[in-house]
Amino acid sequence: MSKFWNSKTRLIKPYVPGEQPKDRKYIKLNTNESPYSPSPKVIEAIKSAANEDLRLYPDPVCENLRRCIAAYFGLSQEEVFVGNGSDEILAFSFAAFFEPSETILFPDVTYSFYPVYAELFGLTFKEVVLDDAFSVPVEKFLVKNGGIVIANPNAPTGKFLPIEEIKKIIVHNNKLGKVVIVDEAYIDFGGESAAGLVKEYPNLLVVQTLSKSRALAGLRVGFALGASDLIAGLYRIQSSINSYTLDRLALAGAIAAFSDESHFQQIRRKVIQTRERVVRELEADGFFIIPSQANFIFISYPRIQAQEMFRILREKGVLVRYFNKPRIENFLRVSIGSDEEMDAFLSAVKRMIC
Which of 104, 190, 240, 246 could form a disulfide with 293 if both were Cys (CB 3.0 to 4.6 A apart)? Predict the structure, then answer.
């Protein structure tokens, strides 16, 4: 700990990403990356954009990309914000819409960046306990609050909250005049997006990413959909930190990704089909699996502790994610890889449990 750190830096507990080891070759099922390549159109667009214009700053408001996303979702450009990955957009949202004097709500088992952001921005928060089936207890969110954040499908469980239930939360908070952020990083793997509610509810902000279903984790592009005044608020925060969050290559690649719908549909269907096959095989072997609408599954085995399974799989060259936290300390999160990668994972699992 450095003597030059201020008190916030010393006390904060930063987010810990999945490990990226370099000591050997692993089957990497620990960071929810796509097992498939981006659209060839993306690669072509990035190569084309790598020209002499790199000496110039990119468009600070990303007009062309916003127009592209707006057309895709049937919105106006003013209802779209883009940023350097959905994590950055979530950080901007915590800064833009929540008051330190009011208590924001999010589930107790969810994306672990939420409490990090809340503490970083000096916000008061309450973690609402999921029920025994790891479902969101909607009624416990229908109380006075300073804002709500819901990951849907949830992470790390992969469980989806039906849009009718999400709508109850949005309607309640609209009456309070408080924002609801629906974090849809994994929505393309099975759930219905809340994007269709944006025009109806001015307090709704939907956040998505190109990292998962469009296979662009390395490009770092996310976007938010919401009423124009919410989007304007995000740009006020962005322009107070860094006006140029997306570079020219990322902008070109992201636009190309939206232009190749067939590639997007193909790779998301492959992930869904592989997920369902793996779930069937694991359940036949006695695993408990929370129903997932994401590109990962959350699994538990009655005869071996999750931490021990994590260790054994790592020794066998398979990386999965273990969270040493209350209520989920006996679960592993397993990203869905290619069929070949998942066959290797299943083989390692069968050797482990026999």
Answer: 190
Q: Are residues 293 and 315 in the same domain?
A: yes
Give tens-digit pLDDT for 172-185: 999 999 999 999 99
Instruction: List C-alpha distances in Å: 17 to 109, 143, 245, 284, 321.
Output: 16, 32, 21, 31, 10
Do 139 and 156 have their domain in common?
yes
Check which CATH number belongs to the domain holding 239 and give it.
3.40.640.10
Question: For residues 128 and 104, is the Cβ–Cβ distance under 8 A?
Answer: no
Cα–Cα nearest to 65, from 268, 248, 266, 261: 248
**113-120 vs 85-97: helix crossing angle, rounded to 10:** 40
| 3-class SS of residue 191 | coil
Give the confidence band of 13 by pLDDT, cuts at 50, 70, 90. Answer: confident
Q: Which of 215, 244, 259 is the last residue of a domain?
A: 259
Q: Are residues 121 and 255 in the same domain?
A: yes
pTM value? 0.96
Contacts 24+ apart (CB under 8 A), 127-131: 130/157, 130/327
